[in-house]
Write a structure and sequence with these properties.
Layout (H helix, E strand, L loop, with lengths): L4 H27 L1 E7 L3 H14 L4 E4 L4 E3 L4 H5 L9 E3 H4 L5 E3 L3 E5 L4 E4 L4 E9 L4 E2 L7 H7 L3 E2 L4 H13 L3 E7 L9 H15 L6 E7 L8 H13 L3 E3 L2 E7 L4 E6 L6 E5 L2 E3 L4 E2 L2 H4 L25 E3 L12 H19 L12 E8 L2 E7 L18 H19 L8 H7 L12
Parallel strand pairs: 1-2, 1-8, 2-5, 8-19, 10-17, 11-12, 11-17, 12-13
Antiparallel strand pairs: 3-4, 6-7, 7-8, 9-18, 14-15, 15-16, 20-21
Helix pairs in contact: 2-10
Bound molecules: flavin-adenine dinucleotide.
The site of flavin-adenine dinucleotide has 38 residues, from helix 2, helix 3, helix 10 and strand 20.
């Protein structure tokens, strides 16, 4: 592109101004020590910042977050299924972070828990009295040989997990003319363990609608040894896969995609080293995940790379002024936004107590939830705790496919997310569960 001298000098001046203002804000932030620093502006980070900025006031809370957009990821299943658009699931980051907190638009790259500071990618050192880590999970597509290239080479290779690829899922389903449609589940902890199969049910339904189902094998290749970690919902899902003639292969881990041959290579985890090659005509990949590299290599994580917290209090096991929420912490529960909501209330009470040098009283019971969409209009609402025991909100059998639960998932939950959770007003359905079950005999465990 040709640029004349006048344009060039204007560009230089503009760049100079931009750089100066960037340096100015950097210097101001670098000198400031915040009472509370939150790392990550996703579900957990926004909710925690909203809660504490109300308590601590403007200028005392900072959020370190590099992204310009916030995504309501639970909607990605509906985006991939052609029911919602990506823009429905997206908001500018500025609009979801509380106005009174300082947004440091950079990545956290170094944690110094002894000197109580975090260094950002732009070189700032941000001091804190208290730190909440809410960095979520990183998608490791590159751990599967040939997969990053396959996304570019073959439009039938898709993934609902990434903003760049979720928009390709529905077109791939609609283009599909029969053959093998394979859906994968990796060999690492992931966010929303139900999502790899939810998109399979939506796709299978569309294959029937498009008259391609009779020429199609729908295959779920999962690294796990069960279809779902909670017996009650696993039993329901097994009935769904059986009635819809879906083949489930357990202990199969995707290790390679050969886009030019349309082959997916799986390792048989029952017999490590043994590879099986599947031909595919559509491949939906759930990638291996880990905490972000900057966190995984820090001193605040456990051996598995998760922020090492007490599973009940969510306080760090070695640094009492650090807490962690959501997908990046070591709480051994299924990683969901629903878990974030329940953790949020516990973290609020316990961190507030620590700030006042009081006793922590709130305990997280592992509550998590997964709306298992089985078709456009049907959903099994799984809710459970650390012991993989159902912890259901409604006094009906949630193990059944229900249209009410679908509407809850598609219509009510997004509102709850944007208007309540991110604003710091939603701590999960614990209170409602107690109210709904008042006086009713139930096999459910009492809620926390
Ligand atoms: C396809 C799909 C379907 C899902 N379905 C459901 C569902 O039905 N129900 C449900 O409850 N949950 C669902 N989830 C899971 C849910 O979205 C997550 O569990 C939840 O968003 C976790 O919140 P978080 O705050 O821990 O992480 P996130 O919301 O992922 O936020 C992490 C933030 O940290 C930021 N970050 C990362 N690295 C750094 C760094 N170095 N420095 C600063 N910031 C950083 C990121 O930019 C991001 O903004 C689904 C997720 C997906 C992908």
């Amino acid at each position: 592109m040709a640029v004349n001298v006048l344009q060039h000098s204007r560009l230089v001046i503009l760049e100079g101004l931009k750089t100066r203002s960037r340096h100015f804000s950097t210097a101001v932030i670098a000198q400031k020590n915040y009472k509370l620093v939150v790392v990550g502006g996703g579900s957990g980070g926004c909710a925690v910042a909203s809660k504490f900025v109300k308590k601590l006031g403007a200028g005392n809370v900072a959020v370190i977050e590099p992204c310009q957009h916030h995504y309501y990821q639970p909607m990605f299943t509906l985006v991939g299924g052609g029911i919602k658009s990506l823009s429905d699931a997206t908001r500018p980051m500025k609009s979801v972070l509380p106005a009174k907190c300082d947004w440091i638009e950079s990545k956290a790259v170094k944690f110094d828990p002894v000197n109580q500071k975090v260094t950002t990618a732009s070189g700032e050192e941000v001091g804190y009295d208290y730190l909440v880590v809410a960095m979520g999970l990183q998608l490791n597509f590159d751990k599967i040989k040939g997969l990053p290239e396959a996304f570019d080479l073959d439009p039938q290779v898709v993934s609902n997990y990434w903003t760049k690829t979720v928009v390709n899922t529905y077109p791939a389903i609609q283009r599909f003319k029969g053959g093998n449609a394979i859906f994968t589940f990796p060999n690492t902890p992931i966010k929303c363990a139900g999502a790899p199969q939810k998109i399979m049910y939506l796709a299978e339904e569309l294959f029937r609608k498009n008259n391609t189902r009779k020429d199609t094998n729908v295959i779920f290749n999962t690294s796990l040894g069960v279809i779902f970690g909670v017996k009650k919902y696993a039993e329901s899902l097994l009935k769904v896969v059986e009635s819809r003639n879906i083949q489930v292969n357990y202990k199969r881990n995707l290790v390679e995609v050969r886009a030019s041959e349309r082959e997916a290579v799986f390792e048989n985890l029952d017999n490590p080293g043994e590879m099986e090659v599947f031909k595919y005509d559509m491949l939906h990949v759930t990638p291996p995940m880990s905490t972000p590299d900057e966190l995984r290599t820090s001193d605040i994580v456990n051996e598995a790379g998760f922020v090492d917290v007490n599973k009940e209090t969510l306080q760090h096991n070695s640094f009492p002024n650090i807490f962690a929420i959501g997908d990046c912490n070591s709480a051994p529960t299924s990683k969901t936004a629903a878990a974030v909501a329940a953790q949020c209330g516990v973290l609020e009470r316990n961190l507030s107590a620590v700030m006042k040098e009081g006793k922590q009283s709130a305990k997280y019971d592992g509550y998590t939830s997964c709306p298992l969409i089985t078709s456009r209009g049907k959903c099994i609402l799984a809710e459970f705790d650390y012991d993989a025991q159902p912890l259901e909100t409604f006094p009906i059998n949630q193990g059944k496919e229900r249209s009410t639960m679908y509407h809850l998932k598609a219509k009510v939950m997004p509102e709850l997310y944007w208007k309540m959770l991110l604003k710091g007003y939603w701590n999960g359905p614990g209170v409602y569960r107690k109210l709904m079950r008042l006086g009713m005999g139930s096999s459910q465990k009492p809620s926390a």
